[in-house]
């Protein structure tokens, strides 16, 4: 019966029946709206009109401090607040002034109470806006952005009714342009925006969000600096929508500012149970970058609360990858640093009646609607004794947990704060046999370190309410959690569990196999850290989850390596060529520019002798039309030598396979210019070259609809081709692991750590140009 009464009440406010029923599903919202509507009816003494009902619904759904409900309802019911603009201003005012009492005079000034905007004023403001843009309006007609006119009129008349402004714009534009023609009804073609000159090498060029290309002209630092993001200023946490205040909030923020000096503080909090991947690169850039862009500091904090899965090698690898990307943490900390404080706060939470020891098993807590705990209301002293018994090892794993008394945004009830685990911890050994969960640990560690902006991916949005609740339940400083979208790649698997399956199946060698998208794998393949950071800048600081094509990352790699990888020559499928009229008695020393486009970057020297090796594909006895390389009657130039060779004899083995060529040479300036210049090596080094392609054949290997047999059934059998022996010129003889080169006409290559003295191994990082088949 009560539900029917509420349904009738809500539809009486102007809500559709569907919207009213949806509202009833939200207990907190429906209770607040019911109270607001009841009070408004009592004030008005009559039914509520739709305009007032809309404002009341907006108030109930957006107000975070219930203490202000009655105060604001009285202003709406008495028509002192009668527009959406005024309501937004009122909500912002009470959010930024959480302490009593409210100064009504200042409040009314800030909210435009009593300000009357006449139709004549709206007409004049719209007319002035139209006159400013008249020439462009007459050219573009109805393709002009009318929102610009409404925005300018509203800026001139802050408290004007938005609907009245829109109506006036429509009327005046119709009077100026007349009715729409067929041309006006055609869709306006999209025109790419002109890009301003970029001076920052990290400046983004193309951003692709969910596969759609858009223009992005800001560097990562510019995207993260100051007002570029709508984040709160340090100490102004309470101005953030959804932030929950208490009577202690302002004092805690004052203490926070005294400790931090108003400095921005962020943290990157990985779990040390696996290797970082490309998605983490965005998190690293966002957390460290936001602090750097705003003269702040960033902690590297290991969330080491699950000793079963943590290994020392993961701590080391994570530190290495953060440094590799170019960031230096202000301090490296561990959640385990704070175990004593976290335990003391858990006891305090029990004393305050906000936590209890529960004996429900893990399987009983799974699912969407688990049964409420029968131990939820057990006496405080009993929970304290049991919690101490948990710490002393008197319960087996799974027999007891400490749970917090709250309902999370996703409907999960009473999340676990502590559980029993008898696995020794890598830092604390056997000191503890109970460990805190993420839901309990994360916000409290942020509070201890006085983090100003707790930046995390979108899936943690459902935990925001528990984040605020726990800090406030203990009356400790409460940071603000901000969410951003995850970064994913097509043709990739980044799950720790699935990478382990790939290793176990022999599909990849280890976490750093160059076909994976872990950061250690990308480094081994030869991806420069600058390219990964540039890629994150191109993706941008998006709220929506983005799934990118790998070739966009590869484009960033080419941009960096084109300027940083010196040139060398290598031959993958060698064919011996003997120059019968070599112009010297011994080998010549050839000076080759490290960067042909900029010879100021130096040269390296390679030998040029009477025997050279070329790519087998650079010769054909019977060439097809359009073939431009070496053939009968078709000479080619040898790059950097100044010589042209012409075929004289083809030497074949018993099987008929071409074994070598005999050619003559002449100076390039003596005669007709050849159609092509090819690369070559002379007196080369033998090496191993690994050519990598995509590990998976489908874009989404984890999608059952796309790959019914599972991701292990989608492996690309041609993802690795080992070329051995390949030949490379001797300029790379002293190369070290991770040194990078452009092998002319072949691609960019990096020295693999498997290399030994005299036995170099190269990984192909990317080809010189994007493969048009990769979409």
UniProtKB/TrEMBL annotation:
Gene responsible for this protein: QARS
Function of the molecule: Glutamine--tRNA ligase. Plays a critical role in brain development.
Protein's GO biological process: glutaminyl-tRNA aminoacylation
Subcellular location: Cytoplasm, Cytosol
Quaternary organization: Monomer. Part of a multisubunit complex that groups tRNA ligases for Arg (RARS1), Asp (DARS1), Gln (QARS1), Ile (IARS1), Leu (LARS1), Lys (KARS1), Met (MARS1) the bifunctional ligase for Glu and Pro (EPRS1) and the auxiliary subunits AIMP1/p43, AIMP2/p38 and EEF1E1/p18. Interacts with RARS1. Part of a complex composed of RARS1, QARS1 and AIMP1.
Start and end residues of each tRNA synthetases class I (E and Q) anti-codon binding domain: 677-752
Domain Glutaminyl-tRNA synthetase class Ib non-specific RNA-binding: 7-162, 165-254
Positions of the UniProt region annotated as Disordered: 185-204
Entry protein name: Glutamine--tRNA ligase
EC numbers: 6.1.1.18
Organism: Neophocaena asiaeorientalis asiaeorientalis (Yangtze finless porpoise)
Record GO terms (molecular function): ATP binding; glutamine-tRNA ligase activity
Cited InterPro entries: aa-tRNA-synth_I_CS, Gln-tRNA-synth, Gln-tRNA-synth_Ib_RNA-bd_2, Gln-tRNA-synth_Ib_RNA-bd_N, Gln-tRNA-synth_Ib_RNA-bd_N_1, Gln-tRNA-synth_Ib_RNA-bd_N_2, Gln/Glu-tRNA_Ligase, Glu/Gln-tRNA-synth
Domain Glutamyl/glutaminyl-tRNA synthetase class Ib anti-codon binding: 565-665
Main location: cytoplasm
């Amino acid at each position: 019966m009560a539900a029917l009464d509420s349904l009738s009440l809500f539809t009486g406010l102007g809500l559709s029946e569907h919207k009213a029923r949806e509202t009833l599903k939200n207990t907190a919202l429906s209770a607040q709206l019911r109270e607001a509507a009841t009070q408004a009816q009592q004030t008005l003494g009559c039914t509520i009109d739709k305009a007032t009902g809309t404002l009341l619904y907006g108030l109930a759904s957006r107000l975070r401090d219930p203490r202000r409900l009655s105060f604001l309802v009285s202003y709406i019911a008495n028509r002192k607040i009668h527009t959406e603009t005024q309501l937004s201003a009122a909500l912002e005012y009470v959010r930024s002034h959480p302490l009593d009492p409210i100064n009504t005079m200042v409040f009314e000034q800030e909210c435009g109470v009593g300000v009357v905007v006449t139709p004549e004023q709206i007409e004049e403001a719209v007319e002035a806006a139209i006159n400013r843009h008249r020439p462009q309006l007459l050219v573009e007609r109805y393709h002009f952005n009318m929102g610009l006119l409404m925005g300018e009129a509203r800026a001139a008349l802050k408290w004007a009714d938005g609907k009245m402004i829109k109506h006036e714009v429509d009327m005046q534009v119709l009077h100026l342009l007349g009715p729409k023609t067929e041309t006006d009804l055609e869709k306006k073609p999209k025109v790419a925006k002109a890009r301003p000159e970029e001076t920052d090498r990290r400046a983004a060029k193309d951003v692709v969000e969910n596969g759609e290309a858009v223009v992005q002209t800001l560097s990562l630092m510019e995207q993260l600096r100051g007002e570029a993001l709508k984040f709160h200023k340090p100490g102004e946490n309470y101005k953030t929508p959804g932030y929950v205040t208490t009577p202690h909030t302002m004092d805690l923020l004052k203490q926070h500012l005294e400790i931090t000096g108003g400095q921005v503080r962020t943290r990157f909090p990985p779990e040390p149970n696996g290797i970082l991947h490309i998605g983490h690169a965005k998190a690293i850039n966002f957390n460290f970058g936001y602090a750097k862009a705003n003269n702040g500091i960033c902690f590297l904090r290991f969330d080491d609360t699950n000793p079963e899965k943590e290994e020392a090698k993961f701590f080391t690898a994570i530190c290495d990858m953060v440094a590799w990307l170019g960031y230096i943490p202000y301090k490296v900390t561990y959640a385990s640093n704070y175990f004593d404080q976290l335990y003391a706060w858990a006891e305090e939470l029990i004393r305050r009646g906000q936590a209890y020891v529960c004996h429900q098993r893990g399987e009983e807590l799974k699912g969407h609607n688990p049964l409420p705990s029968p131990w939820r209301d057990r006496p405080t002293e009993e929970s304290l004794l049991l919690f101490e018994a948990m710490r002393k090892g008197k319960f087996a794993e799974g027999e007891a947990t400490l749970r917090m008394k709250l309902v999370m945004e996703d409907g999960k009830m009473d999340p676990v704060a502590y559980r029993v685990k008898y696995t020794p911890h890598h830092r604390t050994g056997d000191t503890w046999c109970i460990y805190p969960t993420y839901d309990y640990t994360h916000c409290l560690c942020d509070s201890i370190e006085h983090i100003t902006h707790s930046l995390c991916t979108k899936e943690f949005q459902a935990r925001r309410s528990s984040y605020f609740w726990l800090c406030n339940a203990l009356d400790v400083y409460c940071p603000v959690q901000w969410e951003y979208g995850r970064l994913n790649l097509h043709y990739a698997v980044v799950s720790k569990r699935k990478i382990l399956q790939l290793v176990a199946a022999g599909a990849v060698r280890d976490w750093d196999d160059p076909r994976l998208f872990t950061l250690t794998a990308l480094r081994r393949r030869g991806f420069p850290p600058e390219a990964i950071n540039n890629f994150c800048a191109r993706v941008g600081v998006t709220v929506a989850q983005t799934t990118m094509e790998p070739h966009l990352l590869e484009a960033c790699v080419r941009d960096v390596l084109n300027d940083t990888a010196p040139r060398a020559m290598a031959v993958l499928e060698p064919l011996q060529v003997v120059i019968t009229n070599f112009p010297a008695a011994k080998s010549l020393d050839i000076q080759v520019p490290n960067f042909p486009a900029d010879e100021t970057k130096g040269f390296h020297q390679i030998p040029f002798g009477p025997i050279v090796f070329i790519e087998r594909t650079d010769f054909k006895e019977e060439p097809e039309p359009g073939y431009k390389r070496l053939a009968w009657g078709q000479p080619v130039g040898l790059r950097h030598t100044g010589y042209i060779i012409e075929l004289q004899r083809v030497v074949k083995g018993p099987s008929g396979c071409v074994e070598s060529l005999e050619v003559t040479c002449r100076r390039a300036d003596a005669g007709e210019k050849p159609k092509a210049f090819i690369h070559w090596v002379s007196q080369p080094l033998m090496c191993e070259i690994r050519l990598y392609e995509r590990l998976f054949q489908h874009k989404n290997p984890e999608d059952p609809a796309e790959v019914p047999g599972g991701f292990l059934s989608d492996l690309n059998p041609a993802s690795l081709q080992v070329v051995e022996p390949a030949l490379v010129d001797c300029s790379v003889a002293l190369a070290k692991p991770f040194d990078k080169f452009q092998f002319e006409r072949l691609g960019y290559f990096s020295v693999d750590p498997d290399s030994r003295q005299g036995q170099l191994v190269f990984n192909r990082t990317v080809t010189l140009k994007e493969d048009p088949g990769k979409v």
